[in-house]
């Protein structure tokens, strides 16, 4: 999910998108090729810091946070820690410079296994190729006459410009997409399919939260309506983009929004209470709305 002020977060999003989209078996194969945990401390032009941990050793998942501890929560111990500024990280990912060269110039600091630092460019290049081989993102809901939306999604593919609530939905995919144990626990507890209709600057945009046991990391979030994705939603929730963001942030509750007329529903309205639990679980210490 894009992080304001950190252009290089797109690099991490690409890694996350690939890992989330892969099947469990394919993800294990990619992890086996690297066998390392990378930790990044990225500093932007304003001096702000953001932290990322990329586990390519065990579960194959990515976490982030505004503190090192938040990003490292639930992750194995890093084999290498890299401190880099936002601009340099982008240049490394684009092949315009190397981690080794920037290390010598002092723009990159490395702790841990130095050899893994030398492998950073090939790693990013490999995942870039994998990302290019994935189906193109579908940022908006398909037309009613279109085929069902693809069941392979990444955090980037569900984000719609002008809809801040889509970042909340992307966070759900990011939180549960590649963490099999966490996803299975949430699916078992929720056992429901939601259609979220958000009213924003370009009209109503829809997403499906497929939170029933058996859903894979690639299809727990689907752009478009339930009908377009050939799913049966237990409830459809209709609200403004800003109210959905407030709901996710805990500023309002589903019940209060419903009573105030801010939230409309079709189907089992009690499922809205379960959605609040999902939003809370997905938010975590590293969520960015």
Short structural description:
The chain has 289 residues and is α+β, with helices and mostly antiparallel strands. It has twelve helices and ten strands. The longest helix is centred in the middle third of the chain and has 14 residues, at 120-133.
Description of the structure:
By secondary structure, this protein is α+β, with helices and mostly antiparallel strands. The chain folds into two domains: about 10-135, Nonspecific Lipid-transfer Protein, Chain A; about 155-285, SCP2 sterol-binding domain (Nonspecific Lipid-transfer Protein, Chain A), CATH 3.30.1050. The protein is about 40% helix and about 20% strand. Residues about 135-150 and about 285-289 have low confidence and may be disordered. It holds the Pfam family SCP2. It comes from Coemansia erecta. This is SCP2 domain-containing protein. InterPro entries: SCP2_sterol-bd_dom, SCP2_sterol-bd_dom_sf.
Cα end-to-end separation: 9 Å
- What are the segments in which pLDDT stays under 50 over at least 5 consecutive residues? 136-152, 285-289
Strand order in the largest sheet: 3-2-1-4-5
Strand segment tally: 10
The first-level CATH class of the largest domain is given as: Alpha Beta
The helix fraction, in percent, is 25-40%
What is the name of the CATH superfamily of the largest domain?
Answer: SCP2 sterol-binding domain
Major pleated sheet: 5 strands, mixed
CATH topology of the largest domain: Nonspecific Lipid-transfer Protein, Chain A
Q: How does the helix and strand content classify structurally?
A: alpha+beta
Based on CA atoms alone, the radius of gyration comes out at: 19 Å
Annotation field: number of helices = 12
Gross morphology: elongated
């Amino acid at each position: 999910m894009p992080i304001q002020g950190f252009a290089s977060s797109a690099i991490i999003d690409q890694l996350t998108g690939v890992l989330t989209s892969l099947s469990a078996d394919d993800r294990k194969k990619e992890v086996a090729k690297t066998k390392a945990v990378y930790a990044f401390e990225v500093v932007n032009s304003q001096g702000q810091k953001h932290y990322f941990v990329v586990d390519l050793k065990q579960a194959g998942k990515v976490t982030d946070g505004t503190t090192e501890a938040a990003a490292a929560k639930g992750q194995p111990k890093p084999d290498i820690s890299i401190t880099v500024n936002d601009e340099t990280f982008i240049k490394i990912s684009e092949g315009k410079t190397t981690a080794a060269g920037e290390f010598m110039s002092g723009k990159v600091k490395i702790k841990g296994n130095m050899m893994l630092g030398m492998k950073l460019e090939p790693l990013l290049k490999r995942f870039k190729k994998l990302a290019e081989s994935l189906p193109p993102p579908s940022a908006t809901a398909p037309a009613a006459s279109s085929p069902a939306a693809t069941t392979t999604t990444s955090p980037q593919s569900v984000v719609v410009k002008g809809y801040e609530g889509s970042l909340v939905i992307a966070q759900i995919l990011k939180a549960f997409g590649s963490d099999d144990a966490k996803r299975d626990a949430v699916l078992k507890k929720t056992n429901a399919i939601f259609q979220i209709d958000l009213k924003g600057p370009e009209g109503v945009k829809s997403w499906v939260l497929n939170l029933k046991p058996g859903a894979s990391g690639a299809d727990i979030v689907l752009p478009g309506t339930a009908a377009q994705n050939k799913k049966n939603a237990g409830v459809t929730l209709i609200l403004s983009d800003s109210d959905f963001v407030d709901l996710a942030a805990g500023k309002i509750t589903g019940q209060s929004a419903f009573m105030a007329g801010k939230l409309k529903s079709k189907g089992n309205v009690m499922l809205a209470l379960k959605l609040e639990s999902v939003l809370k679980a997905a938010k975590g210490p590293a969520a960015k709305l």
